């Protein structure tokens, strides 16, 4: 049926706010008690010796996050590539390779071409929002993300639902491969079941984000930093901001700061640090201190523990506490809202950014 903005100014805002509900629906679809069940077809990760993940844009950043999850939980090597590179590189694949294609639309030309290259060489799994799409039809198994229709060109709820399916798949992979105990698996499922409520809490920081966004709108360049699974989220935060506000933004691994981007830092460059208090938090704090010593204005997005430990930031945004491993699902929300409100402050069209298409069906 027809989709309306449900009282929001833009589809993007509506889609950001739908996330608790769609993540919840996605979890319900794949969870049977404490067990991950794939109703659409069987994947047995015990016979897989390597995973390659291929996608474009925001979907490729979901793959980058999932690499951390698969490697940590299932001890399986993962490669991530953008489809436009993968398709022409002729990468070696075998019948023990699981090739995962992630696409909201299921119609992105490069991703489809990459899938066709892998077809017959590796086992093909896709993760899609449109289950009648070409990518879904040409896969051995196609898993829906159940995000509902996404209209805003900049992907939001599809990203967090992609992450949700990938998180569950990583748990299944760990169980299949014997690298995750039943007890730890159960604890992870319990934590994931709390994500919709935590995402709702994250949405409550919108007024504060709006305030920060008014300052970001003045910037010419913005840096996003993260470590571990928050590094790909820094890439996604930068992508969202440039897509809809047209401000130049770069995402960097916090530890790479001194290998280049620190040369850009002065009072005019806001630095968004995505850092839940985890075992690497102290390292990120020292990276932050390096930029603050050069006049950089740091926006620290962290939980209560992180903000208590580091109070010198220019602005702070408090996220609820969550297990560090699943924090990317939660921290996607302030990154999306930051981009959205910066676009509003600049007066750009958040739903229909110039030069961009929702689905890129030609090469
Ligand atoms: C375009 C859209 C992005 C999207 C990308 C991949 O660039 O503007 O939001 O992430 O395509 O699209 P897909 O449908 O394959 O996820």
Automatic annotation (TrEMBL):
It catalyses: D-fructose 6-phosphate + L-glutamine = D-glucosamine 6-phosphate + L-glutamate. It is an enzyme of class 2 (transferase). GO terms for molecular function: carbohydrate derivative binding; glutamine-fructose-6-phosphate transaminase (isomerizing) activity. The active site is at residue 358. One of its GO terms (biological process) is amino sugar biosynthetic process. It is found in: Cytoplasm. Keywords: Aminotransferase, Cytoplasm, Glutamine amidotransferase, Repeat, Transferase. Signal peptide: none annotated. Its EC number is 2.6.1.16. Residues 41-179, 212-353 form the SIS domain. GO terms for cellular component: cytosol. Homodimer. Catalyzes the first step in hexosamine metabolism, converting fructose-6P into glucosamine-6P using glutamine as a nitrogen source. This is Glutamine--fructose-6-phosphate aminotransferase [isomerizing]. It comes from Palleronia abyssalis. The lineage of its organism: Bacteria, Pseudomonadati, Pseudomonadota, Alphaproteobacteria, Rhodobacterales.
């Amino acid at each position: 049926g027809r989709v309306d903005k449900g009282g929001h100014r833009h589809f993007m805002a509506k889609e950001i706010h739908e996330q608790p509900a769609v993540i919840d629906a996605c979890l319900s679809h794949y969870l049977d008690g404490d067990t991950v069940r794939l109703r659409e077809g069987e994947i047995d990760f015990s016979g897989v010796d390597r995973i390659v993940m291929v996608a474009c844009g925001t979907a490729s950043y979901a793959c980058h996050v999932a690499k951390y999850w698969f490697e940590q939980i299932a001890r399986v090597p993962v490669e991530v590539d953008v489809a436009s590179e993968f398709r022409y590189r002729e990468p070696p694949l075998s019948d023990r390779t699981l090739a995962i294609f992630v696409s909201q639309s299921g119609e992105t030309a490069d991703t489809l071409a990459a899938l066709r290259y892998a077809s017959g060489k590796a086992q093909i799994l896709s993760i899609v929002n449109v289950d009648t799409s070409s990518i879904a039809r040409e896969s051995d198994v196609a898993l829906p993300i159940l995000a509902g229709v996404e209209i805003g060109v900049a992907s939001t709820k599809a990203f967090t639902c992609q992450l949700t399916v990938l998180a569950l798949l990583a748990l299944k992979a760990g169980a299949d491969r014997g690298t995750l105990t039943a007890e730890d698996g159960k604890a992870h499922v319990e934590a994931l079941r709390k994500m919709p409520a935590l995402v709702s809490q994250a949405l409550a920081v919108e007024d504060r984000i709006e305030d920060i966004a008014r300052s970001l709108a003045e910037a010419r360049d913005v840096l996003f930093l993260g470590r571990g699974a928050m590094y790909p989220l820094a890439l996604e935060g930068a992508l969202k901001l440039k897509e809809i506000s047209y401000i130049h933004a770069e995402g960097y691994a916090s530890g790479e700061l001194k290998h280049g981007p620190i040369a850009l830092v002065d009072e005019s460059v806001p630095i968004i640090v995505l850092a839940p208090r985890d075992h690497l938090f102290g390292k990120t704090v020292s990276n932050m201190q390096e930029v603050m010593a050069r006049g950089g204005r740091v926006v620290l997005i962290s939980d209560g523990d992180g903000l208590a430990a580091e109070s010198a930031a220019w602005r702070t945004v408090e996220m609820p506490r969550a297990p560090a491993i699943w924090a990317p699902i939660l921290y996607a929300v302030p990154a999306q809202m930051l981009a959205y409100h910066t676009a509003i402050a600049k007066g750009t069209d958040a739903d229909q950014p110039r030069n961009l298409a929702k689905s890129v069906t030609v090469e």
